[in-house]
UniProtKB/TrEMBL annotation:
The lineage of its organism: Eukaryota, Fungi, Dikarya, Ascomycota, Pezizomycotina. Signal peptide: none annotated. SMART domains: SAP. Residues 135-145 have a biased composition (Basic and acidic residues). InterPro entries: SAP_dom, SAP_dom_sf. Pfam families: SAP. This is SAP domain-containing protein. Residues 1-69, 104-145 are annotated as: Disordered. Residues 66-100 form the SAP domain.
C-alpha cells in the first residue's frame, strides 16, 4: 500500500509557532530604537587607480596643450583670434597663452558687481578654433572689387553655380559669404592651392592649407589665370615707364638733368633739349647741363620740353589698349595695375603661411 504524505502542519507541529515567534521578536527589536541596533560600518575608500577619475572644471577633459600643435595649426588659431601669426613656435604659443589669460580676466570674480561667478562680462565672444566661418562673415569681403575669374573661383569653393552675369555672381557670393573649407579633404585642398598656383600650397597640415586659401581669397585676382596675369604684367610695366618719365620731368624742372646718364643716347638728348631752347649744344655733358640750369634760372615758369610728351605718348597708348582688354576679361574698371599688385604684395608679405608664384 503506497505511503501518503501528511500535511506540513501535521509533519511539523512546531513550524507555525516558530514563524510566529520570529515575527514577534523582529517587531520588538524595531520598537526598541536605533540605540540597540548594530552600528553600520563605513565603507573604506578604495586605493585602486581605476577608482580615481581626473576631470577639469565642468567635467570636461582638459584641452590638449599648444606645444603639441604644428606651426601651421598655431598660426591658424592666432589668425582666427585676430592676432599676429608670424614668428617661431615659442612666440606663437606665447601669444595664444596671453590671449587665453586676457579672456580669463574678462570673467567676473565671485561677488563682483554686475555679474555672477563664472559669467563673462565681456561683450565680445571668445573666439575658438571652430569660429573660422564667423570670422569670414565679419570681414565682409568686397566681392565687387574681384575679377570675374576670382568670383567664379570663390563660387566653386562654395559649391555654387559659376554661370551668370557679373552682378549675378556678386549677388550669389553676398548671399553666401561663408566658405567652409573644412568640408574638403587635405588632398582636395591641395588641388585648390595648386590650381591657384600657390607655392607650397599642397604642403603642411589641413589647417595650414585652409589658412593659405583664405588668404588667397583676399586678393582681387585669380593667381592661377595665366592670361590675366599677362595683362597685369603688361599694364604694370607701362605704368612703371610712365612713372619714371614723370619723375625725370620733375627732376628737370628742379635743375637736375643727371637722369640722362641712364639713356644710351644721353648726349643727343641733351643736344635736343638745348636746341629746343635755342641754346648752343657745344661743350662737355657737364657744360651742357650747366647751360640748361642757367636757362631755367632766368625763366619765370619752368620750360616744358616735348621730350617727355614724346616718350609718354606711346606708353600711354599701349596702356589704354591693355586696359580695354583687361576690363573686358575681368569685368571691372581698372585704376592702376601696380596699385593692385602692391596691395597684393602687402597681403602676401604679412602672412608667412602664404606665397604664390
Amino acid at each position: 500500500m503506497p505511503r501518503t504524505k501528511r500535511p506540513l502542519a501535521e509533519s511539523d507541529p512546531n513550524a507555525s509557532s516558530s514563524r510566529r515567534t520570529r515575527s514577534k521578536v523582529a517587531k520588538s527589536n524595531e520598537s526598541e530604537g536605533v540605540e540597540n541596533a548594530a552600528p553600520i560600518q563605513a565603507k573604506k575608500p578604495s586605493n585602486k587607480k581605476e577608482d580615481v577619475v581626473k576631470v577639469s572644471n565642468g567635467g570636461d577633459q582638459e584641452p590638449e596643450g599648444y606645444a603639441s600643435k604644428t606651426n601651421g595649426e598655431l598660426a591658424f588659431m592666432l589668425r582666427e583670434r585676430g592676432l599676429p601669426y608670424n614668428g617661431i613656435k615659442s612666440v606663437l604659443i606665447g601669444r595664444l597663452e596671453d590671449f587665453d589669460e586676457k579672456q580669463k580676466s574678462n570673467i567676473s570674480k565671485p561677488g563682483a558687481p554686475g555679474g555672477k561667478a563664472g559669467e563673462s562680462t565681456s561683450a565680445e565672444p571668445i573666439l575658438d578654433e571652430g569660429n573660422s566661418e564667423a570670422d569670414s562673415l565679419r570681414r565682409q569681403t568686397d566681392f565687387a572689387s574681384k575679377d570675374n575669374s576670382k568670383l567664379r573661383l570663390m563660387l566653386e569653393a562654395r559649391k555654387l553655380p559659376v554661370s551668370g552675369t557679373r552682378d549675378e555672381l556678386i549677388a550669389r557670393l553676398e548671399q553666401n559669404p561663408i566658405v567652409d573649407y573644412d568640408q574638403y579633404t587635405p588632398n582636395e585642398l591641395s588641388a585648390m592651392a595648386m590650381r591657384r598656383k600657390m607655392r607650397q600650397g599642397a604642403a603642411g597640415p589641413k589647417a595650414s592649407k585652409i589658412a593659405r586659401l583664405r588668404q588667397n581669397d583676399e586678393l582681387k585676382r585669380d593667381t592661377g589665370n595665366s592670361q590675366e596675369d599677362t595683362l597685369y604684367i603688361g599694364l604694370s610695366s607701362m605704368e612703371m615707364i610712365m612713372g619714371l618719365l614723370h619723375q625725370e620731368q620733375v627732376s628737370a624742372s628742379r635743375g637736375d638733368y643727371s637722369f640722362v646718364k641712364h639713356y644710351r643716347n644721353s648726349g643727343k638728348i641733351l643736344d635736343d633739349m638745348l636746341t629746343e631752347r635755342n641754346l648752343s649744344d657745344a661743350g662737355t655733358m657737364a657744360a651742357k647741363m650747366d647751360r640748361l640750369r642757367a636757362d631755367d634760372a632766368g625763366r619765370e615758369t619752368p620750360f616744358v620740353s616735348p621730350f617727355w610728351q614724346e616718350k609718354v605718348k606711346p606708353a600711354q597708348a599701349e596702356w589704354d589698349q591693355l586696359r580695354l582688354a583687361f576690363e573686358a576679361a575681368t569685368g571691372r574698371t581698372l585704376v592702376s595695375a601696380r596699385a593692385d599688385l602692391n596691395e597684393e604684395d602687402m597681403i602676401l608679405k604679412s602672412d608667412p603661411l602664404y606665397a604664390h608664384k
